[in-house]
Design goal:
Length: 183
């Protein structure tokens, strides 16, 4: 919690070491399932970019990587419910096994939209791997196959997650002080 950004953090939820250990576990758990499937890992930009880099190295199977960007939030801390693709994947996914890599599953709007989108494009399967899950906030029926950590209903930043584009490069995950976004 040192440094200029650290001063805006109320509490560290997961340290760099705890995240690394959990991501290694998730990768090892996923590897046998995808061994012969040549999955496409699809990272949801921008929040999942750091998790993506770590999870593909933790899951040692031949794979492709893709990136998709969606917008729904702006700089607010609650989802608008409307999901728009601002950057699409670059390859044909029909018949392919996908692993959607997300930073946090909150209302479920983003992932239920993406799951439907990929199935409509002919994916053979869509597996959801999210670093964080806020189950209390769910509005859409969506199940994550792999979850790093369940978190309380607080606004968190770090390890890819931002507030107004800031804090993504904090190596840990922490709760942002409410006064940072309420004024
Ligand atoms: P959903 O569509 O499930 O409501 O929201 C998913 C997206 O909302 C995440 O990808 C993330 O960008 C954003 N989000 C939800 N909760 C938080 C949070 O606590 N902190 C941050 N930084 N983003 C969040
Ligand atoms: Mg996101």
């Amino acid at each position: 919690m040192n440094g200029e950004m650290g001063q805006d953090i109320l509490k560290v939820l997961y340290t760099e070491e705890e995240i690394a250990a959990r991501v290694r576990e998730l990768g090892a758990e996923m590897a046998p399932k995808f061994q012969d499937k040549r999955p496409i890992f699809i990272s949801v930009l921008r929040g999942a970019f750091i998790f993506m880099a770590d999870i593909v190295r933790a899951c040692q199977v031949p794979c492709d990587v893709e990136f998709i960007a969606v917008s729904s939030y702006g700089d607010a801390t609650a989802s608008s419910g409307v999901v728009k693709i601002t950057h699409d994947i670059q390859q044909d996914i029909s018949g392919r096994h996908l692993v959607v890599v997300e930073d946090i599953l909150d209302s479920g709007n983003t992932l239920s939209f993406l799951q439907q989108y990929f199935l409509t494009k002919g994916a053979a399967s869509v597996t959801i791997c999210t670093l964080l899950d806020k189950p209390e906030r769910r509005k859409k029926a969506i199940h994550a196959d792999y979850v790093g950590f369940a978190v309380p209903d607080e606004f968190v930043v770090g390890y890819g997650l931002d507030y107004a584009q800031k804090y993504r490069n904090l190596p840990y995950i922490g709760i942002l002080k409410p006064e940072v976004y309420s004024n």
